[in-house]
Amino acid sequence: MDPFTERTPRVVAARKLTRRAERDKTGRFLAEGANAVEAALEHGTVHELFVTERAAEQHADLVDAARAAGVAVSPITDRAADGLSETVTPQGIVAVCALLDRPLDEAVTPDARLVVVLVDVADPGNAGTVIRVADAAGADAVVLAGDTVDPHNGKCVRAAAGSLFHLPIARVRDVPAALSACSAAGLRTFAAHGYADAELDRVDLTEPTAWVFGNEAHGLPADVLDRTDLAVRIPLYGKAESLNLATAAAVCVYTSAMAARR
Predict the structure, then answer these.
(1) Biggest alpha carbon–alpha carbon distance for the chain
(2) What is the pLDDT of residue 209?
(3) Which of 12, 28, 73, 132 has the maximal Cβ count within 10 Å?
(4) Strands (E), the chain
(5) CB-count exposure of residue 26 (10 Å: 0-12, 13-18, 19+)
(6) 3-class secondary structure per residue, 183-215
(7) What is the pLDDT of residue 87?
(8) Which residue segments constitute the domains of the chain, with CATH numbers given?
(9) pLDDT at 88 > cutoff 90
């Protein structure tokens, strides 16, 4: 069959998924690139796979896996791939997937030992990187609370590098509800806060823990800090004034993960 162009109705419909309103309306999002597509085929629900001729040759295993799973594989032109991509150099392979977020009570359960909560995190690259860190550290769930960015945003999906499909993701506007769910599941809630009295290397992290991280510019608001069990800061031994969100999250989450495995 001839490849779909940028004017083909299915490509036009998929292109609209770069907007959050359309993602929420249809319950679908785009996962671009070999890592994301592979994870989607293994752990998610894929409705369609768009692929250029070149990408089909480079990733024949993914195309075969999609067909074996009964997924519609649609060839597209390079120009159509450009329209589906939010990157400067499109990879030519894009999956249309079902949204991944779950209800809060399904994501945060009494069996959980490590959960990450993001509050009002604005940058999708940061959110995706933290999701990847949480996955690598063996976290049980990530909760995106308040005004945190949509995890199905293209930049977030790319930054997560497939991890978005590996662990439960919950979205909830109500920040107190997110913290209450963690406490009800038996998790101690630790707020990462640059001006906290308690230092990370002096805190007992062997108990089930939920790490709470705030906005990149403003951190956690006072009312959220008050609702957590303990505010914790990462000691800085050099001259840097602070760590960025993704780095701070990696330090805190991995410290907990290693403490639980000793």
Answers:
(1) 65
(2) 98
(3) 28
(4) 28-32, 46-51, 72-75, 93-98, 114-119, 141-145, 169-172, 188-192, 198-199, 209-213, 230-233
(5) middle
(6) HHCCCEEEEECCCCCEEHHHCCCCCCEEEEECE
(7) 87
(8) 9-99 (3.30.1330.30), 102-260 (3.40.1280.10)
(9) no
